Amino acid sequence: MDKHTERLHYAKPAETWTEAVPLGNGHIGAMVFGGTQEERIALNHDELWSGYPRTTVRDGAFEAFQKSQKLALEGNLREAQFAAEDGFGVRETQCYLPMGDLKLNFRKRVHWNEPEYFPSIENYSRELDLSQALSTVTYTADGVHIKRELFVSAPAGLVAVRVQSSEPITFKVNFSSPLQGMYRGEGILYCYDGEAPGDHTPSGLPDMQEYGSYVYEMAEDKRGVGFRTAVRAFSDGNVGNAGPAIGITESTCAVIYLACETSFNGWDKSPYLEGKPYKEEALARLEGIGAADFDALKSAHIADYTQYYNRVKLTLEVPDTAGADLPTDDRLKAFQEDESKSDKKLAVLLYNFGRYLVISGSRPGTQCMNLQGLWNAEATPPWRCNYTVNINTEMNYWPVLMSNLAEMDEPLLKMVAEVAEAGKAIAKAHYNAPGFVAHHNVDLWRHTGPVGIGRNRACHMFWPFGSGWLCRHVFEHYEYTLDKEFLAAYLPVLRSNAEFYNHMLVEYKGELIFCPGTSPENGFLWPVTEETAKLSWEEQREIYFADRRKDKSERRVVDCAVSQSAQMGMSIVKESFQNYLAALETLGLPKDDLADAVAAKLPQLRPPQISPYNGRLLEWYDDVADCEAHHRHVSHLYALHPAREISPYTTPDLAEACRKTLDLRGDDGTGWSLGWKINFWARLLDGTHALKLMYMQLRFSSATDTKYSHGGGTYANLFDAHPPFQIDGNFGFVSGVGEMLLQSDGKQLRLLPALPPEWPDGSVTGLAAKGNLVVSISWKDGKLAEWKVDGDAAAVEIYDGISGEKLSWVEFG
Question: Can you say whether residue 187 is alpha, beta or left, with left for phi > 0 and alpha for psi between -120 and 50 degrees?
Answer without folding.
Answer: left
